[in-house]
Design goal:
With about 90 residues, the chain is mostly helical. The protein is about 65% helix and about 0% strand. The protein has four helices and no strands. The protein has helices spanning about 15-30, 35-45, 50-70, 75-90. The protein is elongated and about 55 Å long. This is Arc-like DNA binding domain-containing protein.
């Protein structure tokens, strides 16, 4: 998260201990500091389209499409391709 220099300002507020524990655990998993993890969450709220979530969504989409494709009419396949195009723009 330290890939660019931007002026920052200290922000103080109360956080429940359970949230701090969750921040620390997740930060450790993601090889970040607690502050970096908190900043990451703030930047991605309210829509947490994290790389991990996007990967999960894409895998689910691909699996469902693979199951349904043999029975799909041409209009459905065209719609799928249009949505896939939009999806690629999110990456």
């Amino acid at each position: 998260m330290k890939d660019h220099k931007e002026e920052s300002k200290m922000l103080s507020f109360r956080v429940p201990k359970s949230v701090i524990k969750d921040l620390e655990d997740t930060a450790k998993e993601n090889n970040r500091t607690r502050s970096e993890e908190a900043l990451y969450r703030i930047k991605h709220y309210p829509v947490p389209l994290t790389p991990s979530l996007m990967g999960e969504l894409e895998n689910a989409k691909n699996q469902k499409y693979g199951n349904l494709k043999p029975d799909m009419p041409p209009e459905a396949i065209q719609t799928y391709e249009e949505v896939a195009s939009l999806w690629r723009r999110l990456k």
